[in-house]
Amino acid sequence: MTILSDTASVSHAIVANDLAKHYRVHRREAGISAALRSLFARRFETIRAVDGISFAIDPGERVGFLGPNGAGKTTTIKMMAGLLHPTTGTVTVAGHRPAARHHDFLRAITLVAGQKQQLFWDLPPVDTFELNRAIYDVPRAEYRQRLDELVGLLEIESVMQKPTRQLSLGERMKCELAAALIHRPALLFLDEPTIGLDIAMQATIRRFIADYNARHGASVLLTSHYMADVAALCPRVIVIDHGTIIYDGTLEALAQQLRPEKRIELRLTATANAPSAWDCGDRGRIVEREGTRIVIQAPQGVVKEILAQAIDELPINDLTVADAPLEEVLGALFDKAAADRQARDPDQTADTGKSVAIEKR
User: Fold this and answer.
1) Residues 55 and 151 in one domain
2) I need a surface site. Which of 41, 86, 142, 151 has the fewest CB within 10 A?
3) Domain tally for the chain?
4) Is 123 in the same domain as 160?
5) What is the pTM of this model?
6) Does residue 149 fall inside a structural domain?
7) Rounded to whole angstroms, how far apart are CA atoms 97 and 80?
8) CB–CB of 120/128 below 8 Å?
9) Phi/psi at 212 (5° precision)
10) Helix-strand-coil percent breakdown of the chain, rounded to 5?
11) Model confidence pLDDT, tens digit, residues 36-72
12) Residue 167 structural domain
């Protein structure tokens, strides 16, 4: 595990050193007899939600923090936001220890969770904006300037005066972002900010986050199960699984490492159907053939040959060449991580893979 020096915490927005969070959880079987037995002899499991991770994020960097449900993403973010104390290890955010909840630290960060809200249900969003102005002691002139900027970027002028309960999900999410950014934080922790939104609103939120990052140099740590969010916003990703980091780098490098093949999509003219007999030989593999659409997976070195053959032999209306879908790349990464865990510990349970300690009380 790489341990970063204390000096690094000054030059980085976030520094985590061997950060871990473990929970001691009581487990018992169903039924009255099991409930009675648990009064005298309880069995506990030590759940290693985060199990010794180290990384650093620079000021102004946009980083995707990815992993399956239960991987440790939200637990890590809560430790960085000062909502949870680490079991072991250290984390420094904006030069502060988050658990101390220092005033300067709280002014430097914001946490936006798509499944939580800070807006008051029966009050208009503008009242929450004013409350946050008072909490963070933002001078009124600066508050008005910042609010005007946020209202313009998010296009929420027409909904600011309506009760929150009358707003659509997308309108509420935009107002949540505005409320969270009134104090102009230097660090944005975004936990599923586009969950439940339609495609158009997701794109709007992504544009706003990218614009805010460019205008103010704010660092962004984003968790999302929508890979379009990650691909559009995050040049770098940190992937966590079973509480440990299994990848830290660029999306491009990850795709090249696990799925170096290209995905060629051919669309034929509307009057043509994809010929069932056509193929590209042993240069590539057809993974989908339906109606006027053919999808081929092939090594990058033979893409030109396949395209030349297809153009010569098929009535092509349109074509695209792209990397493998991010969902497929991450699936391959998780499969590899599971295989590595199984190789290290053949007796490890396949469903959780977590270290378990049983004790009695």
Assistant:
1) yes
2) 41
3) 2
4) yes
5) 0.81
6) yes
7) 8
8) yes
9) -60, -40
10) 40, 25, 35
11) 887 788 888 888 999 999 999 999 999 999 999 889 9
12) 8-255
